[in-house]
Structure formats: structure tokens, C-alpha cells
Amino acid sequence: MPGLLDSLNIARTGMAVNRKAMEVTGNNIANVNTPGYSEQTAEAKSVPGVESSGLTFGQGVNVEEISRAEDIFIQDQLKGAEEKTGRANAKSAPLAELEQVFSVEGDNLATKMEEFFASWKDLAQNPGGEVERSQVIQRGKNLVSAFKEVDRKLDTVKSNINTSLQSEVKTINSKLGEVADLNTKIANAEATGRNAHTAKDEREMLLRDLSEKAGVNTYKGKNDMVSVALAGGQVLVQGQEANQLEFDSDKKNFFLETGNSEKELGRSDFGGALKGLLRVREDMVSKVREQVKTLRHDLVLEINAQHQKGYGLDQDGNGMDDETGRPFFTKGRFVVNDTSLDSPETIVDTDLNNSPNPNISIEVGGSSSQTVTFKSEDDQNGDGQLNLQEMRDGINEKQDLVQASIWNDGTGNYKLSLTSRDRDQGVSSVNTFNFSNSDIKFDPPTAHSGSDQMEVALNDTSHVAAGFSSAPGDNRNAQEMADLVNQKTVKGKFSFVDYYGKIAGEVGIEVNQNQMDKESSQDTLTQLQNRREAKVGVSLKESMLDLTRYQKGFQAAAQYMSK
């Protein structure tokens, strides 16, 4: 039969268990505002009783373990919400920069285009005016500067994204190392019978951070260690070992270092902030850059074609509908024949009526090619010969790879100019056959202004072609140039200003959509965080009730001992 010592032991264990429970509860209260902290509980279990005289007598109580609250389902949902939030947050800054580049307010590319065409309207009112002619050239230079400024800003946006990517990789690598270290700490603690609750809370917060930054997947393995992998399946952490991500600042690509080897990674391998930044860089920035290239390409083609229809004040126009040969802008991807000619009427073939007929073969982008053969129907003035102007017209009528024009460098030298109509491909090869004038050769084709940047080709106000003749007061070309502002010349669907509005509108839509995604994902994340706190976090109200209950339990056990 149990005696006094057994009764004292029961009281002792009751006091010890309630004291330990108060300590655990006090620790919970102390960590109520600690991010990621999971509530801990002293799990009490009755000591097996002893039998005496056919009866079983209790032997008190012990704390079997300190448990940690956990909800794996909510943890997985939180990681998914962190990934979406990280992706939207990361896109916000570069998208805001793009929105500034294509602003619809204030001074922008659209206003520079409008001002340029307005200067031609002013010139049409006073075609001989020195001020108006000077203004046309200056507004053209302003437009060139505006295009260059857009390109510069797009380069800045891309550079800022790459800087952010490099910074994110450093942070991710640091966190991967911390996860591997915590894996080791947790495994060692549990192997020796100690709890590792604090380490598990820290690790769970790190995994959420990694989900937010890279959209990682996690898997539990032996000894409660976790493995971390990218969305593409590449392992970042395996047990106590962590691999490292590398961002190549020159190639602007990602690599995963695993031992002595490395593997190149793509956007599909990532989620979270990295995916968001890569999407803006590879989709949005590249897309708007191509759209600007389209706008610039079509604008230069249309303005140059129109300008070459007119006469400058320095030319002896006869009122006929012939051309000056002067483009307004120079631009990349145009080629000219080797040797300068004296005038647009220079004969390039003396006899179109006899075979073999002269022909020109044009190749664009190294693959697409067309051949133009000149025959008697190309002789516009009936002299049986082919001059430079007639050759240009025949090329434009019989093929669609290039736009032919007559290029005047302002010093009285004329050349046949071929500009690719494809904004992505340049003229790669030009071959001429059976021309009696050997000067009309492109061997090899010489590219001018070796980039997509344009410049104003005119260096004298007298070169501005306001009329279709050099007659005083002829404003016909200036008026037609001014009218281009409203014509659907870009892709046959948009005016120049409308196409800029299309670019700005698409950027604005992307910004607004991302803002909605950001707010939605943040709301979801907040709701999940609240659910987590309700299920595994610390409730002060419940903790205070528990503390009172354990205090009373301790007091009762002490009173039992004193009796």
C-alpha cells in the first residue's frame, strides 16, 4: 500500500509539471510577436500506477515532451502565396520604370512626332522661310533624340533588372546555406533526444522567403531534414549540402553550381521574384523595344520616301514630278552602290531592247531573295535606256524586300540606296548583272549607320524639300509630309502617334494588371497568415487562461504536499 513518500512524490511531480507548463506558456507569451513562431505545449502524461491489495494507485505525472504546433497544409498554402506575392512585387518597380518611359503626359516621343509634323505644316504656310526650314531640321533632330532617349531608358530598365537579379541571387544563396545548417542542427538535436522547435521555426521562415524569391519546392526527408528544389526540379539543398546559384553578369543568364559542374537555367526553372523580373526583362522590355523599332523603321521609310519626292531650294527643279534623291533621315540597314553617280538621270544601261536584260538580285537576312529584271517597259522617257531613277522605280514596283531610293549625300553625289523593309533583317547581298554602267555594283554591299538609330541627313536648310519643284511658293511636298501624321502608315493600321499610344496603353494595362495581382496575392497571403496564427500561433487570451490554470495546479499540488 502506498505510503507517505508516494504521496509526497505525487505532489512533487504535480508541482514540477505545472511549473514546466508555466515556463512553456511564459515562453509562448514572450514570443507572441516573433515572426514564424509556433506555439509550444508541455505534453503531460500520467505515470503508470502500482497495484497493491488489488487496487491501482497513481504515481503522479510527468512532462513527456514539449510539442510544437504545426499545420503542413497551411504551410504549403503560405509558400504558394509567397511565390505569387514575390512575383508581383518584383515586377512592380521595372514596370513603373517602363510606364515612365512611355508616359502619355508631358514631353514624350508622341509629342516630338507631333511637333515634327507640325513644323512641316508651318513650312507649308511659308515654303521659302529660313526660320521654318530651320525649325523642320531642328524638330527632326529633337525626334531623333527622343528615340535615342527611349532606347537609353530601356537599356536602363534592363540594367536595373539585371542588378536586382544579381542581388536576389546573393540573398538566395545565403538562405540556402542557412537551410542546410539548420538541417544539420535539427538532425543532431533530434538524434540526442532534444527538441529543435526554434530551429524548425527559423527554417520554415527561410523556406517561405525562398518561395517568395525563387518559387522553390520543399520535401521532407530522413531525420526531419528538408530538401529544396527549383520549379524545374534542380536540387538546391539536399540534407546538409547546399548548391549555389550563379548569375552571369555578362551573359545575363543563370547557372546552378553542383560540385564541379554547372547547369544553365531558364525562366521556367524559377518562380517568385526571379520569375517576375525575368518576365519583365524578356517579355515586356523586349516587346516594347521591338515595337519602338517598328515605329522608327516605318517612320523613317515613310518620311524618306515622301521627302525624296520633293525639291530643295538648291536644286534646279523643272516642275516635273521627279525627285531630289535626298532622304530626310539616315538609318541603319541600308546599302548603297559602290561608286557615286553625277545625277539621278545617269544612264545605268544603254539598251533595254536587246538581251540579256540587266537585272539585280537582292537578299535580305541571308535567306529571302528576289530578282528584278529590267525590260523595255521600265523605260519611262522612251529613250530605250535605263537611268538611275527608272531603275529605282522598277525595283520598288517588282519586289517587296527593300525600298529603293536615290541617296544624295548633300555634295552632289548620288547613289542607289536599298533599305530593308524587314525591321529585323538587313540587306545581306546585292548582285547586279548585265548593266552597261559598271558603277552600279554592290560588291560587297556597304551598310551605313550600322545600328537602328537614325540621324537627320540634312545639314543645310536649302536641302529641305518643301515642294515638287524649286519654284518659289511650291509647298506641295511640305503639305503631304504634314499630312503623314494622320495616315495609317505603321503596319497599315496605325498612325505614328496612335502606335505610340498603343505601346503606352499595353504597358499601362500590364502595370494595372500587376497591381491587381499584387493586391490579390497580398490579401490571400494575409488571410493565410491569419489562419496560421489562429491554428499554430500564440493566442494571448488562451495563454493567460492556461497560465492561470497551471498556477492553480501548482498551488494545489503544493497545498497537497503541505497537508
Say how many strands there are: 22
Evaluate the radius of gyration.
39 Å
| Mean pLDDT over all positions | 88
Main beta-sheet strand count, sense and barrel state: 4 strands, antiparallel
Unreliable runs, pLDDT <50, ≥5 residues?
A: 317-323, 447-452
Strand order of the largest sheet: 5-6-7-8
Q: Give the strand content.
A: 15-25%
How many DSSP helices?
10
Structural class: alpha+beta
Question: Globular, elongated, flat, extended or rod-shaped: what is the shape?
Answer: elongated
Q: How would you classify the quaternary structure?
A: single chain
Q: How far from one another are the termini?
A: 19 Å
Percent helix among the residues? Answer: 40-55%
Task: Walk me through the structure.
- With 563 residues, the protein is an alpha+beta fold.
- The chain has helices spanning 4-30, 72-101, 109-125, 130-191, 197-214, 272-307, 388-398, 476-483, 496-536, 540-562, and strands spanning 40-46, 50-52, 55-57, 61-68, 217-220, 226-229, 235-238, 241-242, 244-248, 253-258, 261-265, 329-330, 334-336, 347-349, 359-364, 368-373, 386-387, 402-408, 414-420, 427-433, 446-448, 455-456.
- The chain has a four-stranded antiparallel sheet, with helices on one face. The protein has a four-stranded antiparallel sheet with strand order 18-19-13-21, covered by helices on one side. Strands 9-10-11 form a three-stranded antiparallel sheet.
- It is elongated, with a radius of gyration of 39 Å.
- 37% of the residues are buried.
